[in-house]
Structures are given as C-alpha cells and as structure tokens.
Amino acid sequence: MSEKLGMEMADKMRKSFSIKSSVKLLRQSKSQNKTQRDFQNKIDSLQTKPQDMLFNRVWGCGKQCPFCKAPCEAGGEVHAKHFLSVHRPEGLGRYRFDNSKKLVTDICTSLVHSDISFKCRDTKDQWHKYKEYSQIYPDWQIDPDRSIEASAYWKYVMAEFNEQFAEEYDAKPADIPPYWKNMKTQAEESLK
Ligand SMILES: [Zn+2]
Ligand SMILES: [Zn+2]
C-alpha cells in the first residue's frame, strides 16, 4: 500500500495507557446505563475476561509494545530486544487513522511490512515510516510479516467492543472485517 494512511496517537494518555486504562474501561462500564450494563454482561459471559487476560499476561519484563500495547513475551530473563509472537490490532493501543479517526485493525507486524507511516509523541508528531520503527523504538524487535494475523481472541474483543473502545479512546469505531464478529467460539476455544 502506498497511500499514506496517517495514524496518530491520542497522545495525552499514550504513556499511561496500560492495564490501568483498560481496567478503567471495564470498571466504568459496570455503572448506570443499559448499554454499559450490556457491555458488562458481555464481558461477564466471556470465559476468560479481558481484564484477567491483561493481568495474566503481564509477567516478565512488563514492557508493552509501543503500538498495540501488548506486553513483551520475552519473560523475566535478560533480553536484548522486547518481542511478541503475535501483536494485537493497533486500535487497542489507541492508534487511529489520521483522517477518519477510525481505530486501526492492522497489527504491528503487518504495518512494519507496509509503506504506512505513523506519528505520535515519540516521533515529535512527525510522520515516520513503520518500516523504520527501530529508529524510534530501538529496544523492540517487530519483524515484518504480512502472514500473521491477530489472535481470534483479540479479533473478537475488538469486534464486540468496537464502539466502547472508540468512545473510551475518543476515536471512531474501526471498520471491522465482517468475519471478526463471528469469532466468539474460536476466541473461547483459543483460551482453553
Ligand atoms: Zn504491537
Ligand atoms: Zn521485554
């Protein structure tokens, strides 16, 4: 893709986006209105809850991917670069298209394979090629690979809570690939 799909970060909270803001999203949704209750009910009906996933997965070095915010998998041992086998849709890390403000469904390994650029506080709000991410994030290894897709779990979560993420992140809902909406069973299976 040669078009410049601009992405920006709502960067006020970028540094602090972490488990805290995710949990806040879930806790807030317990309250008052019906949509929020429905949201919580959906969360409750997941066999493994997103907040548990977030907590359970934070082990090892605790660093999060600068784009999708998934935690490094390299574990607690000393490692030269932070690494993840499967990244998450970047919208979950607050990335949105610059023009449409829609949350991004692509994952980091695809984006570093593309000609797409990003900008955020770390690039001083200047466009920077994903391909050259290591100039900005030298301690991360994100290998370009178009064949890897997000996990069934995160596809399902993003599809199911698209509107809520958009609201929480002050963005527009993502254009979700239609089949992501039918992945509940696979998402649950993947957690067993
Ligand atoms: Zn990532
Ligand atoms: Zn690490």
Automatic annotation (TrEMBL):
InterPro entries: VLIG_GTPase (IPR052986). This is Interferon-induced very large GTPase 1-like. It comes from Cyprinus carpio (Common carp).
